[in-house]
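Two proteins, back to back. First:
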Amino acid sequence: MDRSAADMTDVEARSLGYAFRDGLAGLNAVQAARCLVAIAALLLVLVTLDPFPDLRSEAATTVVGGRMALAYISWGLLAAVAVLFVASTDGPSLRSLVTPLHLCLVGWLLVNIIFSESRGVSIQRFVLAASVTSLAVLLPLLPPTQRSFNLCLGGAALVLLVLCYLGVFLAPQYATHTALDITEPMLAGDWRGSFGHKNVASPVMTILVYVGIYLTAVGSFVMGPAVAALAGIFLIFTGGKTSSVLCLAIYGLASLVYVTRSLWLKRIICFVPLIVMNLLTVGSVLSPALGAMTRQLPLDPTFTGRSDIWEFALAAVAEKPVIGHGYAAFWDDVTERQTAQGAEWATSAAHSHNSYLDLAVTIGLPGLLLVILVFVLAPLGNFQSAQAYSRSGALAKLFLTVWLFGLYYGTTETFLLERQNPIWFMFALAVAGLHFLARFQCVDQMKPER
């Protein structure tokens, strides 16, 4: 590196340092602690307690009990601390979460767990999911000001990006897929950073692109472009086709929704393409006519044979359409289940590669309906309300964009209600952010009006 480049890097680093110092200046000890909890939660979900797994080792495919116990303890403690902090200052915000619809969803999940085929597994995983989701929902309330929220979000993003790039350039065997990987050696060369798979790295990088654009829009002209550029470049090298295509498409869709006044037009813009995507994917194995149509398309909406997995999952839904097979308890051991001739490989799948179908399998059709009402339909109404009261327009657009990306990403991958999945965490954060923005004044901070 020549001297001018080194000087420029030094200037940028000092600029970021000044931004953190100025943004956190004036906070008392409790407020600073709240910011630390927010940053810890973001780093725990993005970097994890086990970064850079060695996919060349058999150990990468097994779950280590002690490591999982540490994850449960870490998430549980952080969630408890977050609840205590928020309850002491933001009671109205917490009470706004207690709605009949939210209670129905939680109640149904508890009923589903009682009747689960693997009750112990469902209980254990639900506890982790509850801790992770609680942190995601409360995170918009933890930083005392919107500026400190921005710094927490941008700081955590930069830490992750620096780690990912250092891994790629200094220890590529731990940060990229290689031909020696135990599973999927055909992905050799694709970047995965600190994550265990490029299919996790690519959607996270897409979300960080949106974060960078948001930070730039609110005046962070060093951190914002840095996050957006670093995440965008990394996204390209992951080789994640779905996320790469969705990245700009979803941002364009969100921008169109942002300038549309009518709620009904917003619904059409958001949901009609989403319905079409589900029809072209899962719908193609339900309807021979749709299947014939998809075969005429210039691209393969089944993503190279996922139709076998969807048929297998649909058969599982038909077995228990109401109660489902149990939260997070179906895909652990399906090797003994019957499949269509020639589709036996579907029993080796880890999930159904469609979030909506996977929920129907695990928590039943009533559970899927409740998730759609809470996480698909309600957020758009919340965005409309926030927009009507001109509450933090740039922040509302960030939440809208992340929410929309999650909806469309869910047509090809499974992440909804999935424990410590980083896409689920950021999606739940966005949904919660829209919920709070719709109900409380949020010019400088996401707090109730005093």
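And the second protein:
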Amino acid sequence: MVVTGRAGLLAGLGVLFVALLMPSWSGVGVVVAVVLVVCLLDLLLAGSPRRLQLSRDGDTAVRLGQAAVVTLLVANPGRRVRGLLRDAWPPSAGVQDPPHKLDLPGGERRRLVTHLVPTRRGDRKAYRVTIRSIGPLGFAGRQGSHEAPWTVRALPPFNSRKHLPSRLARLRELDGRTALLVRGQGTEFDSLRDYVPGDDVRSIDWRATARRSSVVLRTWRPERDRQVAIVIDSGRMSAGRVGDAPRLDHAMDAALLLAALATRAGDRVSLLACDSAVRADVRRPAPEDVLPSFVNALANVDAELVQTDFRVVVSQTLERLGQRSLVVLLTGLEPAVIEESLLPVIGPLLRRHVVVLASVADPRLDELESARADLIELYGAASAARSRLDRERVTAVLTRAGVTVVDENPDQIAPALADTYLSLKKAGRL
């Protein structure tokens, strides 16, 4: 028998009182009365779970898929409490531990550890702590709950950070340590060095050559302190699963790699997640705060099941930008949406800024297009081929309009977007 609070205890006493007033004491009545007496005695001797004092400590943030540790400190100012303690969290928090066994004498404290492996991004809040205190005879117990608030934020995992060292090596090659073969508009003079066969003759400094006995070459480096605006479409197109995660999660991963690379290149990076309304907004944080601010802002962004209003996206982007900037729009490459919603409103953005559209392609389409064993697979292959042709057509339309399109599978979208940024940097288009 487990009772909760004084109401259950009073109910048990009432049943015992009625049993004692029974006019005829049959054998069953005696047994019932004895059992009730023992249970009530056990109940009265059980420690009160409501008198326990609870506090928490531990991790407040963890990358998605990694383990977080939250400790619960339980202090007992009353009688000994023996039983079970359940630390309740939502299912997506990924609690790894069963209910804790508790044996806490009066005047002592216990530290209980809960391990969490979140399965979804966002804030995961503790629900409540429920304690069941069993009496010394083990026949009955008392149960009570406590509010012990705690929040663990599951951050984007940033799996693409493994590509960062190789892209930083390429960035160092561009950043004044080697000559650029293309003298792009907007590049900055870096230094002079001797001419080596194969260098671009357009970079020869004839005045410096006249003062020396050898041919001298100018080296150029990409301009720094440019502005990079990363815009993530959080509408319904981002809700579809591509591979083992939603398209939105792959877009976030690519955005984090680009932000880390652009920050190391000396550029200023901002973030906007938007559909019909702004969902996340980070405006030009300090270089050391770029990644922390981005992952915290994106942690609670989920794909909204609404059609993205690209008029809002473009106007919000233009509002945040002053000088000529690189705008990276991470969205789906759906022909109908692009042609009907994006292309009619993207003109003001293209006139003032360099625009890159990055989209996560579905590798399942390639598998469907190559499978033609029977009639059903043949229809699937025809549908996949039609989708591929539509994407190629809308890519050509965007390219003619002046948009650089990056359309890659989930595993390649992040490094491909980083390579596109480096290519623009090398060509001096930023």
